């Protein structure tokens, strides 16, 4: 069969005479090939299965597991940055972005532990322990505008994904004890009520 004068077609014909039958079976991403020769001898081969086009673009299961692990205490933007730092690559190539992390969550039913929007956190507190500005205001018995002012002056520590995005405020038991007002003041309401009182002559 190895003679230089033997054509490719002749080699194929010789193989047909030597092989009795061939059995193929799929095992995960491997194709098992069992060749039974005319002498009843058996040869086994394991050939990796070529990935389909959609599989080539699919995010690896290792990355999906990592997103699931990072989800409770991290935002989508933080997860994207973390994966890029670790050298991971997105399924279709390129670096990870917030929108790609959102798609992975949707595709693999991974809940959001640290949403950017307060409405996505019904309790007002998200996975990293921070509170929405409204939830912080309710805990401290102050107006939301007071929370914003305290964040601007550094009295409270907060984070936001964009310059005009919602604030997520850090509150510890010590901070709550130090800043909580006994009664929420409502100056505007008092002033409005005074304005309605009749003038006595």
State the main characteristics.
201 residues; alpha+beta; 3-stranded antiparallel β-sheet; rod-shaped
- Terminal-residue CA separation: 124 Å
Provide the structure class: alpha+beta
**Overall mean pLDDT score?**
84
Strand order of the largest sheet: 1-2-3
N-to-C SSE string, H for helix and E for strand = HEEEHHHHEHHEEHH
The value of Rg in angstroms is: 33 Å
Shape, per Cα inertia axes: rod-shaped
The biggest beta sheet is recorded as: 3 strands, antiparallel
| Count of separate DSSP helical elements | 9
Residue share in helices?
Answer: 40-55%
What is the number of E strands? Answer: 6
Which consecutive residue ranges, at least 5 long each, have pLDDT under 50? Answer: none
Q: How much strand?
A: 5-15%
């Amino acid at each position: 069969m190895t003679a230089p004068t033997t054509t490719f077609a002749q080699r194929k014909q010789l193989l047909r005479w030597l092989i009795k039958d061939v059995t193929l079976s799929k095992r995960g991403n491997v194709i098992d090939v069992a060749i039974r020769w005319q002498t009843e001898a058996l040869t086994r081969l394991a050939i990796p299965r070529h990935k389909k086009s959609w599989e080539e673009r699919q995010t690896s299961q290792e990355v999906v597991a990592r997103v699931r692990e990072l989800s409770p205490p991290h935002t989508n933007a933080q997860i994207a940055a973390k994966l890029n730092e670790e050298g991971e690559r997105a399924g279709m190539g390129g670096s990870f972005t917030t929108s790609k992390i959102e798609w992975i969550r949707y595709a693999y039913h991974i809940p959001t532990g640290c949403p950017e929007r307060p409405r996505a956190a019904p309790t007002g507190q998200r996975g990293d322990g921070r509170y929405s500005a409204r939830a912080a205001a309710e805990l401290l018995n102050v107006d939301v505008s007071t929370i914003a002012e305290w964040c601007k002056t550094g009295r409270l520590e907060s984070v936001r994904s964009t310059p005009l995005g919602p604030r997520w405020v850090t509150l510890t038991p010590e901070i709550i004890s130090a800043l909580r007002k006994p009664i929420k003041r409502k100056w505007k309401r008092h002033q409005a009520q005074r304005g309605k009182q009749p003038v006595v002559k």
